[in-house]
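hi! just following up on the protien thing from before. the input was this:
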Amino acid sequence: MRALPNWLTVSRVVMAVVFFAILTLWRWDGSAAQTGGVDALLLACAALFAVATLTDALDGYLARRWNVESAFGRIMDPFADKVLVLGALVFLAGPDFWWRFPEGHAARLAGSGIQISGIYPWMVVAIIARELMVTSIRGVLEAQGVRFGAVWAGKLKMIFQSAGIPAILAIIALWPTAPVVSAGDPGWHATAGRIAVDVIAWTMVGVTLLSGVPYVTKGFSLLRVKDGAGAGGGAR
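and the predicted 3d structure came back as:
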């Protein structure tokens, strides 16, 4: 029982590796999703990601309930979370999810295309920057003996990411998400799947970035207090 929470955390890292391996084999070009069928690989990825995020909720709950929280868990739990989520976003923003306008289309001449997943590289960079900022603040404060645990915004962020990423994969696997184009029409039309993916992606990214605000404001407030206390102590 004491080891189960840590084994669940380790299993999440293993599931993340399998998840990445499946996405490494997947390509939009020639996939079942592109041809209008049900994409079993993406559905498997969505299910695996959902199971992995459930272990995140379960290992923390069991560790607290059984009073078996450990240094290993405090290190590996956030590590496993970030590897899974950030790794998934890197893949979703990668070239395998890139759709180009067909030959002869006006936009194709400009080299234009759309990220089928709705996740673009700049979004991943912004999310990684948010994670690095929060982690840096937490590291400085805890090195000074100040506990800096998760706040409600961080838990809300995890909920949106845990639901948003598998939802995007499932939508791509089951419904058309590529734009509809017509010969002689320089524009394009979005399908219901395309709109759903974009709404989920932008909402998830927006919530993730906004969730960093309470951490930053609280963190810098605590740092100012510590700096002020240190300055006062030196003056005396």
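Helices lie at 4-25, 32-35, 40-65, 71-92, 106-109, 121-143, 152-174, 192-235.
The first helix runs from residue 4 to 25.
cheers
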